[in-house]
Design a protein that fits this description.
Elements: E1 4-8, E2 16-20, H1 47-57, E3 63-67, E4 85-89, E5 96-100, E6 106-112, E7 118-122, E8 125-126, E9 131-134, E10 143-149, E11 155-159, E12 166-173, E13 179-183, E14 196-199, E15 207-208
Length: 243
C-alpha cells in the first residue's frame, strides 16, 4: 500500500478528500472512512448502478410481489434481500408502507419505476436523503433516492400514490459499485497513480479510470504514446527509453 496523499479539491468540489494511492495489481485496497460512504459533493450516482438495476428489472425471476400496508403495523411486509425488484402493490389511491432492514451499513439507493414520493423513517424520525435524482434508463426506472442506513436497523419506507397502485422498487448498496478514478492533470486520458479517489458517483472533471501516466504534466507522455528513440524520454511510460 502506498502512503495516503491528501488532495485539494477546492477547485473541483469545494471540499477536501484524502485518497489512498493505488496498490499493485491484485492487492486489495483498504478503504478510508472518506471512501466508505456517499461523499459530499456527489452530484449523481454512476450510471453503472442503474444499468445493474435494469438487469434485475428485466429478469422476471428477480421480481418479488409485495403488498404494502396503510401505515406501519405488525403486518407491514419487509423488502428482504438485494438484487431484486420488489413489485409493491399500494392501498387503492393511498400511500403504502413497507419495511427494509439493510444487512450492511452504508449508502443505499432505492430505484423506482414511477415518479412518486418516497420517504424513509427510523421510528418516528424522517430521514434526510443523501441524494435524490431522476434517471433515464432503458428498463423504465425513473428516479432514485439515497439514504445512509445502519446494518440491522429496521426502517419504514413510505411510498406515495402511484398509477395502477403498483410501483417497482430496487434497493442497491452504493458502495458495491465503487470505482477508482485517477487525476488526469494534463488531459491525455491517463491518470496519475498517486492521486486518486474511490467513488460510486460520477467523477469530477479531470478524473479518469486509466492510470500509469508517468508524467501527468505533459500530455505527450502516457502509456498510449509512441516512444521516440534517442531523446532520453520515456514517452510511453514503460520504464525504457528505447521502446
Amino acid at each position: 500500500m502506498k502512503p495516503t496523499r491528501h488532495i485539494a479539491w477546492s477547485a473541483l468540489l469545494g471540499m477536501a478528500l484524502s485518497a489512498c494511492g493505488p496498490a499493485p495489481d491484485g492487492e486489495e485496497m483498504e478503504l478510508t472512512s472518506q471512501e466508505q460512504g456517499l461523499e459530499a459533493g456527489c452530484t449523481a450516482l454512476s450510471p453503472s448502478i442503474a444499468s445493474h438495476s435494469c438487469l434485475h428489472s428485466n429478469t422476471s425471476a428477480d421480481h418479488v410481489a409485495v403488498t404494502a400496508t396503510s401505515g406501519s403495523t405488525a403486518s407491514t411486509p419487509s423488502l428482504t434481500g438485494t438484487h431484486k425488484q420488489f413489485d409493491v402493490t399500494l392501498p387503492a389511491g393511498a400511500t403504502g408502507t413497507v419495511k427494509f432492514t439493510p444487512g450492511t451499513t452504508g449508502s443505499w439507493a432505492f430505484y423506482l419505476n414511477k415518479s412518486i414520493t418516497f420517504t424513509a423513517k427510523s421510528g418516528a424520525t424522517t430521514l434526510a436523503s443523501a441524494l435524490a435524482k431522476t434517471v433515464s434508463t432503458s428498463c423504465g426506472l425513473t428516479n432514485y433516492t439515497v439514504y445512509n442506513l445502519t446494518a440491522g436497523t429496521t426502517y419504514t419506507l413510505e411510498l406515495g400514490t402511484a398509477s395502477g397502485n403498483l410501483v417497482g422498487v430496487i434497493p442497491e448498496r452504493v458502495e458495491d459499485y465503487n470505482t477508482r478514478y485517477y487525476q488526469d492533470a494534463d488531459g491525455d486520458a491517463y491518470g496519475n497513480n498517486n492521486v486518486s479517489i474511490l467513488s460510486a458517483c460520477v467523477p469530477p472533471a479531470g478524473y479518469v479510470t486509466a492510470r500509469y501516466d508517468c508524467n501527468d504534466s505533459n500530455a505527450s507522455i502516457n502509456p498510449g504514446a509512441a516512444e521516440v528513440t534517442g531523446n532520453s524520454v520515456d514517452e510511453n511510460c514503460n520504464g525504457s527509453l528505447s521502446n
